């Protein structure tokens, strides 16, 4: 079994995870103009609700499975047994979750009003069992899964343009979105037999998995509250149109966060492996690089999209969604906050077996988010939900930093903050010059401003000899010379 480098895995996983968001992002300008705020709001509400049931069906397996399988990935027999145990547990919880989901559709008026859309989303709860993304992440097999997912996404993109033509087609779009998310799961399950055996094993040990699974479940449940509760509470306290406005605001934020945190998904199995081998030097060296990456990349995209929020919303969704500008601008700092907490929690605390500390941090964030939503949503709608999310993410990061207060100085000492700030300052000035050009279309404003902003940002960091950027450039040059 070939294990690629972290850099290769990062690129593959970035493509993979970003594709799950890029698909709706590419189609968003078309969909928002066809389905309008009400239609997109209905889809977001059904999807966010189904996410809770998928979470209960999965328990903490998506995260626990990565760590459990990564530690024994060199032993096929042990790996096969562990995978089968997790699949059986997942299947049982999926059946229970589906039962409650079906009952809820008929019992809750808001669900029953869109029962066709909810049943379509229910398919994802069932198929999620066969996703087995945790196995592929543990084995660091990103090339196959990336190609498979991209193929499904392209097919879905074609179907969307062919089928979705008018506002009443929101159910069809919901089905296409579900196909894009879940069609690859079946292929994943079949392909997994190249790495494991699905023949029945003897002496299953389910009990040893239950405590850590429940711990990870508590973490995912708390996280899910403040990542999906906003949409659900908006629908119950406002209406579908307000949900649509908020959904437009979080689209760009979501893809940016996905791209920033994709490095964390790649590093988790490798870091768990280092902890198992007690290689602390390699562990902290990789974590330090992760911090450098997040500070450089996340601050750049955060600042750029705060500068060009209005242009982004107008280009993606149109003037009918201008109310999304303020919520999106409020949400942009979460790109940096989530990027950092992804390192402190997923990459540092979890590999060291400190899941309880992560659970406490995200639980604190979930409680704060819920309470702030109760106060802010009735008065400020989507903007209130965005502010609640921002403050919840900040609290999560603060709590995790308190737990890591003795380790953080060593992890952060290589980050050259002043060089990043200088790069951002110069980039802001240069990027803003595009607004001085008269009679220029939105598309070109975004393209030119992005080229100027990020181009200047990169050049300044190189001129200032920022260590991480220079290291990446030198690595690329060395690889090019070797090929020659």
Describe this entry's structure for a reader:
By secondary structure, the protein is mainly alpha-helical. It has two domains: 6-415, no CATH class; 416-484, no CATH class. Helix content is 82%, strand content 0%. The chain has helices at residues 6-58, 61-71, 76-107, 109-112, 115-127, 133-139, 142-163, 170-191, 210-237, 240-276, 280-307, 309-316, 325-331, 334-349, 355-380, 382-403, 408-412, 417-431, 442-463, 467-483. The model has no long low-confidence stretch (mean pLDDT 83).
Features:
484 residues, mainly alpha, 2 domains, 20 helices, 82% helix
What is the strand and helix layout of this fold?
Blueprint: H1 6-58, H2 61-71, H3 76-107, H4 109-112, H5 115-127, H6 133-139, H7 142-163, H8 170-191, H9 210-237, H10 240-276, H11 280-307, H12 309-316, H13 325-331, H14 334-349, H15 355-380, H16 382-403, H17 408-412, H18 417-431, H19 442-463, H20 467-483
Q: SSE string, helix = H, strand = E?
A: HHHHHHHHHHHHHHHHHHHH
Q: What kind of oligomer do you see? A: single chain
Instruction: Summarize the biggest pleated sheet.
Output: none
The backbone outline, from C-alpha atoms, is globular
SS summary, helix count: 20
Strand content: under 5%
Number of domains: 2
Q: How far apart lie the N and C ends?
A: 28 Å
Secondary structure: helix percent? over 70%
The tally of strands reads: 0
Class by helix and strand content? mainly alpha
Mean pLDDT: 83
Radius of gyration: 22 Å
Low-confidence stretches: none
Short description:
With 484 residues, the protein is mainly α. It has 2 domains: 410 residues, no CATH class; 69 residues, no CATH class.
